[in-house]
Amino acid sequence: MTVSTESTTDVLIIGAGPSGLAVAYWMAQYGINARIIDKRSTKIFRGHADGLRGRTLELLDSMGITQRILQEGYHAAGLKYWRPDGNGGLKRAGQLRSTIWKSSPHRMALLSQGRIERFFLDVIRDSSSIDVERGVMGESLTYDESLEHDSQAYPITIKLRTLSEEEATPIPNPGTTPYRPARDDLEDLAPKRKHNVGTIETVRAKYLIGCDGAHSWTRKQLNIPFEGSHTDHIWGVMDVVPITDFPDIRWPSSIDSPHGHLLVITRENNVVRFYVPLQEEDEISPSFDRSTVTLDMLRERVKSIMSPFSFDFKICHWWAAYQVGRRLAPAVNKGRMYLVGDAVHTHSPKIGLGMNMSIQDGFNLGWKLALVVKEMAPPSILGTYKSERHQLAKMLLEFDQKWAAFFLKQKKKQDQLELQGLPEANPEDIQAMQDVFRENEMFAEGHVSFYKASLIVDKDSTAVAKHLTAGERFPQALICKQADGQPWWTSRLLNSDGRFRLLLLVGDCRLEDQKSRILALNGGLLALQKRFTPPKQKLDSVIEVKAIHSAPLDDVELSDFPPVLRQFDETTGWDYTKVWSDSECFWDEQCKGNAYEIWGVDRSRGAMVALRPDQYIGWIGELDDVAGVTKYFEGFLHEPRPEAVL
Amino acid sequence: MTVSTESTTDVLIIGAGPSGLAVAYWMAQYGINARIIDKRSTKIFRGHADGLRGRTLELLDSMGITQRILQEGYHAAGLKYWRPDGNGGLKRAGQLRSTIWKSSPHRMALLSQGRIERFFLDVIRDSSSIDVERGVMGESLTYDESLEHDSQAYPITIKLRTLSEEEATPIPNPGTTPYRPARDDLEDLAPKRKHNVGTIETVRAKYLIGCDGAHSWTRKQLNIPFEGSHTDHIWGVMDVVPITDFPDIRWPSSIDSPHGHLLVITRENNVVRFYVPLQEEDEISPSFDRSTVTLDMLRERVKSIMSPFSFDFKICHWWAAYQVGRRLAPAVNKGRMYLVGDAVHTHSPKIGLGMNMSIQDGFNLGWKLALVVKEMAPPSILGTYKSERHQLAKMLLEFDQKWAAFFLKQKKKQDQLELQGLPEANPEDIQAMQDVFRENEMFAEGHVSFYKASLIVDKDSTAVAKHLTAGERFPQALICKQADGQPWWTSRLLNSDGRFRLLLLVGDCRLEDQKSRILALNGGLLALQKRFTPPKQKLDSVIEVKAIHSAPLDDVELSDFPPVLRQFDETTGWDYTKVWSDSECFWDEQCKGNAYEIWGVDRSRGAMVALRPDQYIGWIGELDDVAGVTKYFEGFLHEPRPEAVL
Ligand SMILES: Cc1cc2nc3c(=O)[nH]c(=O)nc-3n(C[C@H](O)[C@H](O)[C@H](O)COP(=O)(O)OP(=O)(O)OC[C@H]3O[C@@H](n4cnc5c(N)ncnc54)[C@H](O)[C@@H]3O)c2cc1C
Ligand SMILES: Cc1cc2nc3c(=O)[nH]c(=O)nc-3n(C[C@H](O)[C@H](O)[C@H](O)COP(=O)(O)OP(=O)(O)OC[C@H]3O[C@@H](n4cnc5c(N)ncnc54)[C@H](O)[C@@H]3O)c2cc1C
């Protein structure tokens, strides 16, 4: 017997992979009435993606997650290449070194996707009652376009079915070793179902977010095509504890041998991931049937590629034959139904960006959606989700293609050489590879995003901050809290709590001139905050103002700053978190007092920067340009009705 | 009706405060059959101690806990003094800066004791099935001396009673604000009892460890006196969110005003702790009845001391009138029954060392006890618990006395001055305070310990390591793992897993001479490991050998090192964790390649150091002195019978 129930929700998220969890994170932060479902009966514990790039780590830091990743994961900073030595063997032919650590404390980290999902689930639970409902799937989806422009209406109707254990359990994990989950994963080994098996729940929603991966059910329902390559790459992937005398087994390595190509990725503890291409993309007709791939087949391939070094393993935590094409959905939404992450774009695992793009997609859409649902901003800001993320997805696929084409070219050249005898690595080829890497590093790390001018990105920039660009991330620096001297990375202090931030780079606040400029800001900024803050909320709950001065900590008193920078609360007193100093910290040598230089801002005169809740730069201007920044916010923030009573 | 049950355990720990948890940590690491009970129905959530010193953080790092403390806590690096300004007001008179960060990455952290207990409970649960049994108390204790020398016997008989909720619940927490526990504390809000209320369990134990605090029931059972001061200090302590315009409210501060003395301790989030002395120790007759102290009394005292600055609060998380004398138990054990932590020593909270000493006591005793229970070492090593920790407790009390006397003198001087009008701070007095502080800083931070020569500390040192001293902690440095380049602090890599460590500071392993020296070590060290490893265990499970060379990472191959440094396991392959490099790391500027300089070891020729499981230095010698180090281990390690079959 099928039981039926009915309910409404403001936001329904389908799929609790990295992208769905990133959207859910924002729903939790903004206190949105939202739900997130997943067809699988449990979270992921083993396998899947494992690479987190610089920008992803920065935003995870703003969520309070990164320190857990750094503690558990492997920190990567380079890649070693191994090439034929001309005598049938292999030799180290070069090393690619990331230079990212110079512009961010966060370099690549490698850790199982299951752990990353763990950390997301924890922060979501810490701040809300939202939790993933598992073993639940959409059955049908209808959309009433006539309701689209009524913000209070529920144009989406979706029937959700609670699956049986069988339906909800994916093909058993093919690892050969029994899984010993981390203690904090135990409670999620067998999550409770909300409804009994077979229950059909009809949910009416204001917004639907499809985060259901490459084979997205939602995308199919929306009739959005998935365009791209005709054949798929097939990669064998395995997470094993290798038994080998290969010297760089604990360094990320790229091995090209006469027997094929291999990507070796160092991971937490003693795990190493091997990526073995089984079908390259120039192969028009399928050379492999994925279902015929076995773990022993992968073992043998790695053995022959790694020879003359020995290779074997007894422990395998996970393996898969991973089949993926380079595909892109031309649209990211239909009315109020959106697609995020792998549902929009897929590409080869070679560039290790899928999880990063997916998290960043969800991170980009989530806060905008929350503002719209709370009627703090017009639905039109949701258009920037496409203009910002879809072009990046395109670039991602181009990068993937370029990278793959480069390797194909190399491979052909090598095949050619092999016909003439035992080939040796060519330094020029190595250089060529380094060049491709360097050219794309900033993009791959997510340190450039090319977000276009829009409602929420004002590109009419001045020259006051030479190294800041509206539409890009705010570059990280280590600065000290004025009130207590604690050195914090900006990624941590500009935490993702849903607020816009106005950074007053107030310059040298010891100078009399500068002092007056700072004091003169107070009225205008308070007025700005008042206009956009709903009644009964704290003045800094929509737009927070923070100051970073360039004077030494000890030369400055917090009381020098105007009230907007140390708001008073009857219960908790003054706010001590708003004034920061770009100066050296006597007990932390990493804290150099060089933030102004990083940002290209004059240490005396300063500048003003508006940051979006995702820490992307929305607006840059002179320190006094209250009118300018007010105009920026007027462009997309509603004034609450009735006006704030404060 | 009273139900009775009977059982045996190898180790019974009474009291699950910091010292009991530190002992339990080791029991978990060594897989000892141990139990830990506490009379309280729950763990601590609020209040109590909050200061963790450098050495404590180092050892917590070796347990994998420190990163959680750093994320949640406030990091202290100094103290500001406020003194009368001569006009009835207060002025900043100086700042005391810790210099500890130069010799350790770990400087003082401030965080509620409840969180620290949380982290202990987590690591204990991660590695064992030991868990605190709450609401249980000893009723009677008997000891059969005739069994003392039989290692298999249970000379201790203790009757444990399961308490009613009423008996087990301490006087309600006097905080004025409802407590919102951290999510990871939720499961411990109402722990399950093992037995029904009233059950009497008769436990026979091989060892009993009394960690039951200043009013130790165990100490009383053992008839060990608690000697020391006749009158107690009484301190008012409160954890509040202050509403004040005092400029340094977010810096640890010491305020001396004509109205009294105040210690202000910055804490996590926006909490500040205030220590208000209510009865100084020169007062012979009690000036305060602790039970008459109220929160409002403390509020008023702080108000007057802080004036002319304003002070008040609405949120109080915890407060107490803390009564403590300077006392020391002359003995730390009776047969196989030991006392640890506050059960042995108490002192004023002014120097903030109680929790640190208690953790370090438990940390000192725990591994020795485990070795004895496992019959890997003779019971005589337990004697070093007293010789090492009791003299430190004495020094602690002397330091406390010196510190207190200094303040009393200052106070008297000040009282004198006040008779003559409004006093002003005297720079000489400030300097005198700085001198006392500096003189004792290394001791207070736990960076010097003065452990004497003993079975486990061989002081017949050579000059090969100028800055290392047997019986002291191993100084921290940041070094790189040869296999994967990860930079780790020694406090993390020398983790507290119960093993002894032989550090081969192999010097410059590129030199041919040095290479031969290293290779020549292999046989002797393998023989050493074999002698002391029980059958069927991994060769490195009792004594682990690690090498730290002084050459650049890229100039060295792991395969250059002999088998003792990369032991092979049939399931997991080679061990990649044993060889480290003291060289710069291109992506971590803190990693400077200066470890050899820190240790005072010649970069070419190296040295050898044996570390105890608690990372204290047991022996120092020439790199080749296998005979010497073998003799060191022969001094206290049993050879397993039957001999290791490997
Ligand atoms: C072997 C492998 C290696 C990879 N390596 C990397 C890497 O190194 N770096 C990197 O960045 N990326 C990597 N990726 C890609 C990465 O895993 C994906 O890009 C990323 O997980 C996409 O996130 P997502 O949330 O969009 O989709 P997914 O992670 O696929 O999550 C989709 C979720 O939706 C659920 N779902 C699906 N259909 C429905 C439905 N109808 N109803 C309800 N729920 C549904 C699924 O159960 C799943 O939990 C790898 C992927 C694989 C498989
Ligand atoms: C207000 C305050 C401030 C302090 N500030 C600091 C500071 O800043 N820094 C610092 O280092 N130290 C400080 N201390 C001291 C510190 O709390 C103690 O030194 C430390 O907790 C001692 O640890 P312990 O495990 O030996 O004893 P305790 O923490 O007292 O633990 C004893 C445990 O035994 C249990 N117990 C008691 N009797 C029995 C029994 N008969 N049967 C079973 N269980 C029993 C108790 O319930 C308790 O859990 C402070 C203490 C207080 C109260």
TrEMBL record, chains A, B:
Q: Extract the InterPro entries matched here.
A: FAD-bd (IPR002938), FAD/NAD-bd_sf (IPR036188), Phe_hydrox_C_dim_dom (IPR012941), PHOX_C_sf (IPR038220), RIFMO-like (IPR050641), Thioredoxin-like_sf (IPR036249)
Limits of the FAD-binding domain: 9-399
Q: Which UniProt keywords are present, listed alphabetically? A: FAD, Flavoprotein, Oxidoreductase
The Swiss-Prot or TrEMBL record describes its family as follows: Belongs to the PheA/TfdB FAD monooxygenase family.
User: Is rRNA processing tagged as a keyword?
Assistant: no
GO molecular function terms here?
FAD binding; oxidoreductase activity, acting on paired donors, with incorporation or reduction of molecular oxygen, NAD(P)H as one donor, and incorporation of one atom of oxygen
Q: Which Gene3D superfamilies match?
A: 3.40.30.20, D-Amino Acid Oxidase, subunit A, domain 2, FAD/NAD(P)-binding domain
Q: What is this protein called?
A: Phenol 2-monooxygenase
SUPFAM superfamilies of this UniProt entry? FAD-linked reductases, C-terminal domain, FAD/NAD(P)-binding domain, Thioredoxin-like
- Which domain of life, per UniProt? Eukaryota
Domain named Phenol hydroxylase-like C-terminal dimerisation: residues: 451-639
Keyword field contains Cell division: no
